[in-house]
Amino acid sequence: MAQVFEWEILFRTESAGHCATFPPLESRVLVRTVIRPAACAMIPIPTTKDTFAMAFYDVFNGDADGICALHQLRLAEPRDSTLITGVKRDIALLGRVQAGDGDQITVLDVSLDKNREALQQLLDAGADVLYVDHHYAGEIPDHPRLEALINTAPDVCTSLLVNGRLKGQYLPWAVAAAFGDNLYDSARHAAVPLNLAENRLKALETLGTCINYNGYGATEADLFFHPAQLYRRLHPFADPFQFMAEEPAFATLRDGYAEDMARAGSVQPESADDQTALFILPDAAWARRVSGVYSNELARNHPERAHALLTAKPDGGYVVSVRAPVSTREGADDLCRAFPSGGGRKAAAGINHLPVEDLERFEKAFRAAFAR
Ligand SMILES: [Mn+2]
How many angstroms separate the alpha carbon of residue 33 from the centre of ligand 1? Predict the structure, then answer.
């Protein structure tokens, strides 16, 4: 009689300090060894076909919306997953996932259109994908292993979509995220059932703004916290007010934000009228961090005006943030997609690299796009 032994081996790495480039945090391998009575077969041979390993990947935008979407999902359904994220503009994230049969991938707040090829490959490899997003998606693949919750309406964000899926279980985080995505009306509307005093609502606004602010930068070196690290700091707190009171990361972001915004406020516009305003910020870490949130604030303070914020890059050219007028929330995506590295949403979009020689063409296209 042959004897069969089975071991389940658990590989595990500690989660602290790990980020996107690390291997899965946990995987299980089932090894079966058969020992037969014949002398020639006394050496145990693990049979690879019995090997079983399933991995979880959480892929998310490094801004407030991406982080708060994942936070809500993982409060509801805890998972020890590999985190794949980066600076806010780093949206081609799915290509970094190496997954196969039975692996579970959750993708939050990055355009499906920009991750289409990687998504198709992962689905073909046998992975299950939950995709929640509000950016331009193009055609959504029809695949039995893909669950897509995608809504590109200008007044929703990924965290609000996740909140709907979780039936409002962690609503304060979705409210903070909506503020972070500059969806102030949506945030206040969503917050109604919470019955918050105005100062508490304002605190959620500050929280969303600060987490969002942390995501902006050319590279992770510009950021106060790697978005995966910020997510891990925040994840122990189901209550956002407790997070703000107890976690020092919040004070770091709040102070950094105030300082960077004061610097940005002293920069005069290159051009400004009733319809458009264009600013150029210098090549500096503070400018790269603050450009996105500063353009959100400009957009709110001048709701009838479109805004373009260009931040000079060290090797020439500009990173561009465009905000459509808050009164219409339209046209930013079309404008930016007319440039090779452009993309985004109707209300807020950007260009990752605008060569210096394209500056004039951009200025013209920007004014034409929002002329009334
Ligand atoms: Mn978003």
Answer: 49
Q: How far is the CA of 56 from the centre of ligand 1 (A)?
A: 22
Write out pLDDT tens, residues 220-240: 999 999 999 999 999 999 999
pLDDT in tens, 243-274: 999 999 999 999 999 999 999 999 999 999 99
CA of 184 to the centre of ligand 1 (A): 13
Domain spans, the chain: 3-50, 56-260, 267-369
Q: Give me the amino acid identity at 303.
A: P
| Per-10-residue mean pLDDT, the chain, length 372 | 58 44 52 51 45 84 98 97 94 95 97 96 97 96 97 96 98 98 95 98 97 91 96 98 98 97 96 96 94 88 96 94 93 96 91 96 97 88
Nearby residues of 150 by Cβ (< 8 Å), 6 or more positions away: 112, 131, 132, 133, 134, 137, 140
β-pairing, 348-354 vs 318-323, is antiparallel
Distance of CA 51 from the midpoint of ligand 1 (Å): 38
Residue 216 C-alpha from the chain's centroid: 11
Which CATH architecture is the domain 267-369 placed in? Roll (3.10)
Domain spanning 56-260: CATH 3.90.1640: yes
Ligand 1 centroid, distance to 69 Cα (angstroms): 9
CA 319 to ligand 1 centroid distance, Å: 19
Is pTM, for the whole model, over 0.90? no
